[in-house]
Predict the structure.
Amino acid sequence: MKTTYIITLIFSTLIFANCTRSKLDSLPPYLYTYHLKFVDADNNNLLEDIDLNLLKNNFSLAPASENDLELIVESEYINKILYLKVSATSSQSERMDKIYFNVISEELFNDKESHEIETQWDWSNNLDNTPNKVTLDGNNLSSEVLTPSFQYFLVEQII
């Protein structure tokens, strides 16, 4: 009887040990993150004066991207400046070259229309997840690098 328990214990240990070494369990999803700063003509940060919860709720993945990704939108202070941090995650089986987002904000765009943000990603450096290019309604957004690890894209309000 004792031998049966020992053999059962050994097989159970081997089975559970193999489960924890699964490649699918150990690979995290790919993370795509970028920051946006919205300013007016006088370079005032517009994010300070709007309802950020409403903005986050009106930020979405465009239909071309929504099946493959999950979206996270949050505000983040960096060096006492407020930015909109947009992140998306995809499964570890595929890296995205382009991701499309939609955003609606009357306070930021002076209309109730949906605006498209396109991000382009280059994965030549496997550790870098900053986009190469970000466009808003087809117009390139300028990129500002504050430190080697932080870059944001500037959206200037058009009145």
